[in-house]
Amino acid sequence: MAENDIILHHYPRSPFAEKVRLALGFKGLSWLAVEQPRVAPKPGLTALTGGYRRIPVMQVGADIYCDTRRILRELERRHPNPTIFPAESAGRAEMLAGWADHYLFADALGLVFGLHGDRFPPELHADRARFTAGKYDRWDSVRMKARVPDLRAQFAIHLARLEQALDDGRAFLAGAALSVADLAAYHPLWYARGNLGDEAGLDAYPHIAAWLARLDAIGHGASRELAPEAALAIARDSGPMTLPPSSDIGTFRIGMRLTVTPDDWGFDPVEGELVAIDRDGIAIRRDDALIGTAHVHFPRAGFTIRPAIGQ
Ligand SMILES: N[C@@H](CCC(=O)N[C@@H](CS)C(=O)NCC(=O)O)C(=O)O
Q1: What's the chain's Rg over C-alpha atoms?
Q2: Closest CA to ligand 1's atom 12
Q3: Are strands 30-35 and 222-225 parallel, antiparallel or unpaired?
Q4: CB-based contacts of 30, cutoff 8 Å, min separation 6
Q5: Is the beta carbon of 70 within 6 A of some atom in ligand 1?
Q6: Which CATH class name applies to 87-216?
Q7: How many CB atoms lie within 10 A of CB 278?
Q8: Helical spans, DSSP H, in 117-177
Q9: Which of 24, 60, 66, 293 sits a CA distance of 20 to 30 A from 140?
């Protein structure tokens, strides 16, 4: 194991993890897979992140990347070929990905839990009710079931639009080349298909079916299992990457103590000292008793940044 190895903290049935696994496959990469629990507490993960518990998280040595948007950017920086940010769809692909990660995902998830919430253990319902702070009908199966007709209608609208978007014969959503738009639209459909089978109704859309088959064929690259303790030891034995000099931006001053918190669900703040910030990303430094010094990286989109209490 080397300190430059890509480590993905995930669990097999996580749709957002599938988005990254597909990117790893598309780029033909080898990676180490740490399986994390589906519900909190996740001590082997939060020791690395400083509190962030969402899946997936990517680790390279003592650099910890939270959220698939930040993870994909970093994979692209480290392994630019083949690209998942083709110039032909710059900007458009990320706008589409934002729609897919949010609306398409939420309706696929709602449909799965509305139709088959009873397949999931009570502790998962209780965990997700806390995790989403009351969104999704407080993860109450009865209320989620009542929403199924609406969710079916919403999901059908998404599918019809996707079908239309692929109707001109293009191989991928934002153009001729695969982009982050495809990765983001794939994972909710992968999740719906995996949980609902024919009930997901995807076969009624020939362009979507052909597009899914193209993405299914990509695979996940080559992975090996790694124990959570081994990942912590790698972080402890590595230093974070040296970052290019970053300037103060807006009201943010390098060195100030901040919290970074998701703005949609999983509202666990991570506190640290600002080491880098630009329009798209932020990195904070944590000094941790277990793993030593680490840099935790987040995207700016979808996160709230605040001065830490006492600043
Ligand atoms: N915007 C985040 C969303 C991540 C997310 O919500 N992941 C789900 C799993 S697919 C999660 O963390 N659920 C709660 C859990 O696994 O503890 C991303 O792009 O990474």
Answers
A1: 20
A2: 54
A3: parallel
A4: 6, 221, 222, 223, 224
A5: no
A6: mainly alpha
A7: 12
A8: 122-131, 141-146, 148-165
A9: 66
Per-residue burial over 202-237, b = 16 or more CB atoms within 10 Å of its CB, e = otherwise: beebebbeebbeebeebebbebeebebeebbebbee
DSSP 265-306: S----EEEEEEEE-SSEEEEEEEETTTEEEEEEEESTTEEEE
Contact 115, 151 (CB under 8 A): no
Low-confidence ranges of the chain (pLDDT < 70): 1-3, 311
Contact 302, 262 (CB under 8 A): yes
Beta bridge partners of 63: 60, 295
Using the atom order of ligand 1, give the atom closest to the CA of residue 11: 16
pLDDT of residue 2: 65
What local confidence, expressed as pLDDT, does residue 209 receive?
97
Report the atom number in ligand 1 closest to the C-alpha of 56. 20
* Domain residue spans of the chain: 7-82+223-307, 87-216
* Contacts by 112-116, CB closer than 8 A, 24 or more apart: 112/191, 112/192, 112/195, 112/196, 113/139, 113/141, 113/144, 114/144, 114/145, 114/146, 114/147, 114/148, 114/151, 115/145, 115/148, 115/196, 115/199, 116/195, 116/196
Can you tell me the distance from the alpha carbon of 26 to that of 115, in angstroms, rounded to the nearest whole number? 32
Q: What is the pLDDT of residue 311?
A: 63
Cβ atoms of 39 and 127 closer than 8 Å? yes
Q: Per-residue pLDDT tens for 145-200?
A: 999 999 999 999 999 999 999 999 999 999 999 999 999 999 999 999 999 999 99
**Atom of ligand 1 at shortest range from CA of 262:** 1
Structure token pair of residue 37: 């629990």
- Looking at residue 1, its pLDDT comes to 59
Cα–Cα distance, 18 to 29 (Å, whole number)? 15
